[in-house]
Amino acid sequence: MAQVWNIQDTSSPILLCKLDHTLAVKGIAFCPWAPNLLATGGGSNDRHLRFWHTGTGTLLHETNTGKQITSITWSVSRRELVLTFGFDEESPGTIVAVYGYPRMDVRARAQAKDRRALSAEVSPDQTKIAVATSDGTVRLYQLWEPRRNALRATFSGTGPFSSPIINMIEGLESHNGYIR
């Protein structure tokens, strides 16, 4: 179970919502261009990537990666996120993958035979990822070319939350089929 708390007043935190994870959460990251969009990644017995609206606790989408998710990082300039993987039964050796959001299509993948990703951190310029691996090494992977502009919460169609009701709660208005 993952929980979202308001801790502005540390003497009396307020539980905002519960996110129904029944197994370990190993990776977690807020989307930088849709602040109430949270991605959580399950451990070796779960292996699911889930997307939540933290204002309501609504599960928006769930994808079985077939792999233990050890970290999640959103791009600030693309509608993409990077996952690193530990235990992997489907395609052994994949330790980093870049996915498009919201379709979750794999756009890039890094292989490292006989290694697992333990943790990862994206560089400040968002172009590389450093991955600590199970063989005691740190590996750097080029992710993206530098971009000048960060994304804003403007989406066509159903918006970042895939729900007109949650988009309305977030204050995203629809005009001529575009969310802004």
Describe this structure in words.
With 180 residues, this protein is mainly beta. The protein has a single domain, classed as YVTN repeat-like/Quinoprotein amine dehydrogenase (Methylamine Dehydrogenase, Chain H, 7 Propeller). 3% of the residues lie in helices and 49% in strands. The protein is built from 1 helix and 16 strands. The longest helix has 6 residues. It is globular and about 45 Å long. The protein starts with a strand and ends with a strand.
Class by helix and strand content? Answer: mainly beta
CATH architecture: 7 Propeller
In total, how many domains does the architecture comprise?
1
How far the N terminus sits from the C terminus, by CA atoms, comes to 32 Å
Radius of gyration: 17 Å
Strand order of the largest sheet: 3-4-5-6
Share of β-strand residues: over 45%
The CATH homologous superfamily corresponds to YVTN repeat-like/Quinoprotein amine dehydrogenase
Q: Could you tell me the mean pLDDT? A: 84
How much helix is in the residues? under 10%
* Beta-strand segment tally: 16
| CATH C-level name | Mainly Beta
How many helices does DSSP assign?
1
Low-confidence stretches: 176-180
Form type: globular
The largest pleated sheet is described as:
4 strands, antiparallel
Order of helices and strands: EEEEEEEEEEEEEEHEE
